[in-house]
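Sequence in, structure out. Go.
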Amino acid sequence: MIMKTTKIILAFLLFLSVQLISFGQTKTSLYYEGFSSAKNWSTGNNDIRVLEIKNGKYYFEHKRDSKNWNITTREIDIDTSKDFEIETSLQRLSGEKGYAYGLIYGTKNADNTLHFIISDDQYRISEKKDGKFIPIKSWTAHASIKKEYYTTNILKIRKRGNTVYFYINNTLVTSLSHKPFYGKRLGVLVYNKQKISIDYIKASKLESSTTTSASKKTILFEGFNNNNNSWLTKDDATAKLEVTNGNYDFEHKRTTGGWTSTLLKKFDTSRDFRISAQIKK
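Output:
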C-alpha cells in the first residue's frame, strides 16, 4: 500500500482589534459679535449712559448712582429644547467693586429676562418676570471671579439636557434646572455708576459627537523560533510534527482521515478580532 503524505508549514498571528470610543460635543455658531464695527449697536452720550465701539470692544458707561441699564443683541434663534452655550467676556474699568454687572439672556425686554451677574467676589442668578424680581441663586462668593480693574471675567452658561451649568472664567460655579426663556435676545447689564467693556458675545448650538478609533493588540504571534508554547511534537506512523528552523512542520502520513494540532488561547470574542496564518505546502 502506498502511503500518501502531506507536509505543511504554519505560522500563526492573532490580533484583537480594540475600539476606542470618545464622546464630546461639537459647537455650531449661532451668533458672534466681536465689535469690529458699530453696525446694529447704539453709540453716543446722554444723561444715562455713554456707549462707544473702538479697538474691537464695546465700552458701556452707566452714569447714574442707582438703577441699571442694559444693551441687547438682535433676536437670535436658539432652540432651547436642545443643548446650547452662551458666553461673554467683560472688563470692569471704573466704579465701585461692589456694583454688579454681567450677562442677561433669554431676554424679551428689561422686565422679562434672566440674569447671570457678578459683583466684587460674588455672583448671582436671577430673573425678572413682568417687572417682578425673582431670585434663583442668591449672592454667592467664588474665588474664580477676578476683582481687579481691567481684568477679564468670562461668563458662560451651558445647557445640557434639562440642566444649565454656569461658569466664571471656565470654572463651573453652579448648575440649575433649565428655565424657559422669555425672549430671543442676549445682552449685558450694568448696575449703578460704573464703566465696563465688552470683548464679545456669542451663542452656539451644542451637538453630541462620537469618535471611534480602532487599535490593534497582538494576543498571540507564533513564529516557531522555539516551542515555548508547547505545540504537539511527534513522529509515528500517523503523523510527524516538529518545530524546526522557524517553522512548524506538519506531515500527515495516512491516506485517509485528518489530524489537528491546537493551542489554547483565551480572548474576548465580543470584540473585533482577526486570525491569520501563513501556510506553505
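Check: The mean pLDDT is 87. The chain has no helices and 19 strands.
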